[in-house]
Predict the structure.
Amino acid sequence: MTAADLPLLDVRGLVAPAEGRRLLHRGGPVLRPEGVSLQVGRGETYGVVGESGSGASAMARAIVQAGNTAGRVLLDGVEVAELDPVQRRRRLRLLGSAGDGRRQPWSSLVDDMRAAGIADPESRVPELADAVELPATVLHRPESELPDGQRRRVAVARAVCTGPDLVVADDPTAGLDVTVAAQLLDLLGRLKADLGLTYLLVARDLGVVRHLSDRVGVMYLGAVVEEAPARALYRGPWHPYTRALLSAVPVPDPEVEDRRERILLVGDPPTATPGGCAFHPRCPWIRPGRCQDEGPLLRALPGAAPGHVVACHHAEDLDGAVAANEPGAPAENPGQ
Ligand code: SF4
């Protein structure tokens, strides 16, 4: 295999501590022993979707920090943990939702570039501010005094200031109103094209990653349960969890929105890893037997788009099947 054949990012069996106190239960976080595996090609945007506690945010941070986690993370075929720290800071950047509010954008950008070994960082700041459409007048004000939209643009500038190979964006629009979030996603799309970036984009809902992602992975309890080219996933989700997440995404057309079917999940993510299919305690389509006894592996269904795989024993039989919380469903859900 040549370097050109390698994915830019190759994550294999990464088990990262899940985020959130709710999951720190009875001595440890909920983890799936198989962990998360995914590959991101150079120039691609891979969207990872999962609700709070899915492990998606923890995975994002573990990739960038190369922390003490099980599994492997390779950038261009090289273990991230073995990269020179300066190179790592330069090539691999985390885009979070907020920086240190007391700092000024100018100094945080200069410090980030200097730590990544970039020469004459001061001279690059105006160009960066221009690229993220940040007025020069705000560069010397504390971030805490800036409106949300400008603070996020500072975070974007910090993520791209080193000319990285990969930007890992951890829920970059969290807490923003719809208009500001849309503007930020537009900015990320434009920067990707202008700077030739590759993104791993983590978000809580499928609506956020819809317009940016080439491929999407859906995570539940620290493992990918469905992966597909974005268009295939939005047109025809297979996994019950994906179907539920997608059914919660608002549709702009009010008539379609009124007719839209909502799939309600039962309860929160569990506080102990369930046996069998990890989703079975909440699955509206659970069936007795394999669902509780055997963990499903990712597989392609007949006629699937290339790259569309799902971890569900019954995915091909769900269209038209009655979900447990629909009218006409059996009175008892065997998973409860
Ligand atoms: S394997 Fe069973 S419990 Fe798991 S998602 Fe599929 S139908 Fe639901």
Notes: The longest strand covers residues 9-15. The two ends are 48 Å apart (CA to CA).
